[in-house]
Design brief:
The complex is a heterotrimer of chains A (314), B (340) and C (344). Chain A is an all-alpha fold and 314 residues long. Chain A is built from 13 helices and no strands. The radius of gyration of chain A is 24 Å and the shape is globular. The termini of chain A are close together. Helix content of chain B is 28%, strand content 22%. Chain B has a 7-stranded mixed beta sheet, sandwiched between helices. In chain B, helix 3 crosses helix 4, helix 4 crosses helix 6 and helix 6 runs parallel beside helix 7. Chain C has 11 helices and 12 strands. In chain C, helix 3 packs across helix 4, helix 3 runs parallel beside helix 6 and helix 4 crosses helix 6. Classes of the chains: A mainly alpha (314), B alpha/beta (340), C alpha/beta (344). Chains in contact: A-B, B-C. At the B-C interface, helix 6, helix 7, helix 8, helix 9 and helix 10 of B face helix 7, helix 8, helix 9 and helix 10 of C. Chain B: Pfam families: ABC_tran, oligo_HPY. Chain B: Belongs to the ABC transporter superfamily. Chain B: One of its GO terms (cellular component) is plasma membrane.
């Protein structure tokens, strides 16, 4: 019941959020200097030719009309056609989305696998040498830019040790196994920073919980310490954990753009980078919509998890 | 409902808990603070013993030390404590699960795990402490909830702590404690945070369980009224030392230590209306201060030269740590016929 | 029911001046989400006479603190009247309002959180005067230092910060701060609840001294019967937002006329050992003030409740001379003259 209500309210708030996000991007991208018609026809095209192209693309219409046309079609799943290739945007996105989602998922797994246990260990041994080592490493991890980390990983593991393929591997459709192997290093580049953030958040939540009265009660009844830490204190720390996971997903999707470029991966990131360079408004607009949907979906999941994890939230 | 009078309880002398020369210091960056000084006492089987004192008396740290809840990184204990012959001190938290010992705390609001159901916290205790199967544990959990006076226990198993009142939560705490099959229950100010009519219910419950299960209780409280109505014997602590111990009736009616007498005289009541209460001037010396003689001397009205000498806890059943106690006539609680 | 309905001030017999503070049918309701409202104080009549100490005793959910907050204007009075020396407070002009605010001061429960950690004790104590811009700064300082001296704090302590003080010293400082405006009514809300017995005795003694020296009227709110009975001339017992009994302390302690007061008195643990007290242990929990029982609010826990109690709301009636109780069965249970109560 509670969960259904959350899903209902999320859907209701999602629609205006999506409209607002796409609306802002729609107008912002027109502020970028450059003209798609010029990009398409070349710098030496005649004014008549340019006007023709603009009319073709609907760019001669008032902006509100353009936006209205776009959003109307978007609701039916039609995100228009690329200005440059004429390919349907929906198709382009769908072919590249799996890779980006996989990359984000892998990165999230890396972040949790690194961040969660280190956070708990640091909290268990708060103020000890281990704790200081872990928190210092986490701070360092947070300070590292993704793309730099990505390049370092390529230099060491791909070019140096030859353990993983370097940039420009096969696509997911052609050779899934090799493509997945190619995702390992970019996932690490993305996930290490996230892991550092998770470690810090989990540490502070766990320190608070391990000092709480109910933990003293569990100790008084002589429960095994491992059960107290990994079951009771951890479940009590799950709200900040869920929150940070939600934030990480939005951040990872954003950073994926850069990391995909570094590793030459054919995901949404490289699609949107190319589209921006060529003022391909239709593609940019479509990618933004999809990214917003993914972020909103994650937030809904986080909201639902709050209610499942903490009975006090109604 | 009327109360069962305390005086009719059977008293068994065989000591269940024996504490000998328990001392405790806390290490910190700036040095050591000694909070317990050679604390020795015993609790007989089925006996309810009150451990009384103000903040800083050491009553709560005594209980935490016995329950193994002090952080070994900062707390340094010495001395001996045995429960039913088993040593209590210096064992890791790992092998405490077969000790017949349980503890309840002051704040029932925070002492229960907020994100687990009453049932799961209770059953988890039963499976871990008594090796029960899930099915047995569930059956036993219902019995325990019933025993502590929770109505509709089946429905309560699925409740979360925040769905219960303060009194109910403390009852659940007691049920969890009982799930440890304790022969000794350490109760640290269990009724301080609840209303007085609820306190009366809980005190009745603890007394009843003690009789029914032949369970001893070490009852930590600052409230002499609670001691008078609940305990068989009492121990007065001051600045980390036991200053007086004996049968509750004896100690309260004829206190032999000026501090116990001072606490009694400071109590307000309908009878003291319009009068000035006898306060105890001064403050408890900080744990870092080294005192050789009587630790209460600087606040004591009866101070004399001999109070500077080290003092022993003397006497047989009614013990007191005061060299002058034989010559002093101290006023205790009055034996009153209350006009009701 | 032969007893009189309680009318405005006919209780005392003979003409008496208007009470210093009077609450007439005061209710405080809070919205609690949806269309629900929490009635924290429900049509309470209360009078504090000049020079007396009025004790208000109740458990959690009784609304005893809300009564104090309503007097100070910190809780919304939804209906009813607040009278100061017989005059309706809501009709006060600026000057009267200012005078009223200075004349009613409060000492809170927690001595630690009531003082600003970044200000010295002297600054905190002077603050009410600074806010009201009374006199020049120098004279304000003088008044503050005098108040601190009156509560037994030295000039040296006045220069310290709260964390350098003991709990007892902090509560003394709080009392000093309440005194600087020369109040006529001092409201103490659980002011000794957080203190150890010895300190509690010191503060209670201090309040008694100050009452004489500052000619104070005191409204003392507490859950602790022994403290209230020690200090108060008159007691009001509140339960779920309503006054259930109002009597002089002696009369209340010796011959309670409401089953709840009786149970409350009997539940109070006592060091004075007496054989075989017939302790009344109430069953069940205090109902939530969000959903109070109909009729007599105490009927769900009352051992004497009959069907009528669940439907009829009892009024405060005079059960003994100047002793008022809100119980439908007072007369049946306790008799009119204080005969034995085993009439049931």
């Amino acid at each position: 019941m509670r969960v259904l209500r959350v899903v209902g309210t999320s859907l209701l708030t999602a629609v205006p959020t999506l409209i607002l996000a796409t609306f802002i991007v729609f107008f912002m991208q027109r502020l970028i200097p450059g003209d798609p018609a010029v990009a398409l026809a070349g710098e030496y095209a005649t004014p008549e030719r340019l006007a023709e192209i603009r009319a073709d693309l609907g760019l001669d219409q008032p902006m509100l009309v353009q936006y209205w046309d776009w959003i109307r079609n978007a609701f039916t799943g039609n995100l228009g056609a690329s200005f440059l290739s004429g390919q349907p945007v929906t198709e382009q996105i769908l072919s590249r989305l799996p890779l980006t989602l996989l990359l984000t998922l892998f990165a999230l797994i890396v972040a949790v696998v690194i961040g969660l246990p280190t956070g708990v260990w640091a909290a268990q041994n708060a103020e000890s040498r281990l704790d200081r080592f872990l928190t210092t490493s986490a701070t360092l991890g947070l300070a590292m830019p993704n793309f730099w980390l990505g390049m370092m990983l390529i230099i060491v593991f791909s070019m140096g040790l030859g353990l993983f393929p370097g940039p420009g591997g096969p696509s997911l459709q052609d050779d899934p196994a090799e493509a997945l192997r190619g995702l390992v290093l970019p996932a690490m580049a993305l996930g290490l920073v996230g892991g550092a953030e998770i470690c810090r958040q989990v540490r502070s939540a766990m320190i608070e919980n391990l000092g709480a009265d109910y933990v003293r009660t569990h100790r008084a009844k002589a429960l095994p310490e491992s059960r107290i830490v990994w079951l009771h204190a951890l479940k009590n720390s799950s709200l900040p954990f869920a929150t940070i996971i939600g934030l990480q997903v939005s951040r990872l999707i954003g950073s994926a753009v850069v990391v995909e470029a570094v590793f030459g991966l054919p995901g949404l990131g490289s699609l949107v980078v190319d589209a921006t360079n060529q003022r391909d408004y239709a593609v940019i607009q479509g990618v933004v919509l999809v990214a917003a949907v993914v972020v909103l979906f994650t937030n809904t999941l986080v909201d639902i998890s709050y209610r499942l994890l903490d009975p006090r939230i109604s | 409902m009327t109360a069962t009078p305390t005086s009719s309880r059977p008293k068994v002398a065989a000591p269940l808990l024996e504490v000998e020369d328990l001392s405790l210091s806390f290490r910190s960056g700036s040095g050591e603070a000694r909070v317990l000084h050679d604390v020795s006492f015993s609790v007989g089987s089925g006996e309810i013993v009150g451990l009384v004192g103000e903040s800083g008396s050491g009553k709560t740290v005594t209980s935490l030390a016995l329950a193994g809840l002090l952080d070994p990184r900062t707390a340094v204990t010495s001395g001996n404590a045995t429960l039913n012959g088993e040593p209590l001190l210096g064992r890791g938290s790992a092998n405490r699960s077969d000790l017949p010992l349980a503890m309840i705390f002051q704040e029932p609001m925070t002492a229960l795990d907020p994100v687990f159901t009453i049932g799961s916290q209770l059953m988890e205790t039963l499976t871990h402490r008594q090796g029960k199967s899930r099915k047995e544990a569930k059956r036993e959990a219902l019995v325990l909830l019933e025993q502590v006076g929770i109505s509709d226990p089946r429905a309560r198993l699925a409740s979360y702590p925040h769905q219960l009142s303060g009194g109910m939560r403390q009852r659940v705490m007691i049920a969890i404690a009982l799930a440890c099959a304790p022969r000794l229950l350490i109760a640290d100010e269990p009724t301080t945070a609840v209303d007085v009519t609820i306190q009366a219910q809980l005190l009745e419950l603890i007394k009843r369980l003690s009789v029914e299960r032949d369970m001893s209780v070490l009852f930590i409280t600052h409230d002499l009224g609670v001691v008078a109505e609940t305990c068989d014997r009492m121990i007065t602590m001051y600045a980390g030392r036991i200053v007086e111990q004996g049968e509750v009736e004896q100690v309260l009616s004829k206190p032999r230590h000026p501090y116990t007498a001072g606490l009694l005289a400071a109590l307000p009541s309908p009878e003291t209306r319009g009068r000035t209460l006898a306060a105890i001037p001064g403050r408890v010396p900080p744990p870092t201060q080294v005192v050789t003689g009587c630790v209460f001397a600087e606040r004591c009205d009866h101070r004399a030269d001999e109070c500077g000498e080290p003092q022993d806890l003397a006497g047989s059943t009614h013990q007191v740590r005061c060299v002058r106690s034989a010559e002093l006539t101290l006023i205790g609680a009055q034996r009153l016929e209350v006009g009701r | 029911m032969s007893a009189l309905q309680k009318g405005p001030d006919e209780a005392a017999g003979g003409e008496r001046r208007a009470p210093l503070l009077e609450l007439r049918q005061v209710s405080v309701r809070y919205p609690v989400g949806g269309r629900r409202r929490l009635t924290a104080v429900d049509a309470v009549d209360l009078r504090v006479h000049e020079g007396e100490t009025l004790g208000i005793i109740g458990e959690s959910g009784s609304g005893k603190s809300t009564i104090a907050r309503a007097v100070l204007g910190l809780a919304p009075v939804s209906s009813g009247k607040l009278l100061w020396q017989g005059e309706d407070v809501s009709g006060f002009d600026r000057a009267q309002r200012r005078e009223f605010v200075q004349a009613v001061q409060m000492v809170f429960q927690d001595p630690h959180s009531a003082l600003d950690p970044r200000r010295t004790i002297a600054q905190s104590v002077r603050e009410p005067l600074d806010v009201m811009r009374r006199g020049v700064r120098g004279s304000r300082q003088e008044v503050a230092m005098q108040a601190l001296a009156d509560v037994g704090l030295t000039a040296e302590i006045a220069g310290r910060y709260p964390h350098q003080l003991s709990g007892g010293q902090k509560q003394r400082a709080n009392i000093a701060r309440a005194l600087v405006t020369r109040p006529r009514l001092l409201i103490c809300d659980e002011s000794v609840a957080a203190l150890d017995v010895a300190l509690q005795a010191e503060i209670l003694n201090l309040l008694q001294d100050l009452k004489v020296n500052y000619q104070l009227t005191i409204m003392f709110i507490s859950h602790d019967l022994s403290v209230v009975a020690h200090l108060a001339d008159r007691m009001n017992v509140v339960y779920l937002g309503q006054v259930v009994e109002d009597a002089t302390t002696t009369s209340m302690v010796d011959q309670p006329r409401h089953p709840y007061s009786e149970a409350l008195l009997s539940a109070q643990p006592h060091v004075n050992l007496h054989e075989e007290t017939n302790r009344i242990v109430l069953t069940g929990d205090i109902p939530s003030p969000l959903d109070p029982p109909p009729g007599c609010r105490f009927h769900t826990r009352c051992q004497h409740a009959i069907d009528r109690c669940a439907t009829t709301t009892p009024e405060l009636t005079e059960a003994l001379p100047d002793h008022w109780a809100a119980c439908l069965r007072t007369e049946e249970l306790y008799g009119l003259t204080g005969r034995a109560k085993e009439l049931i």
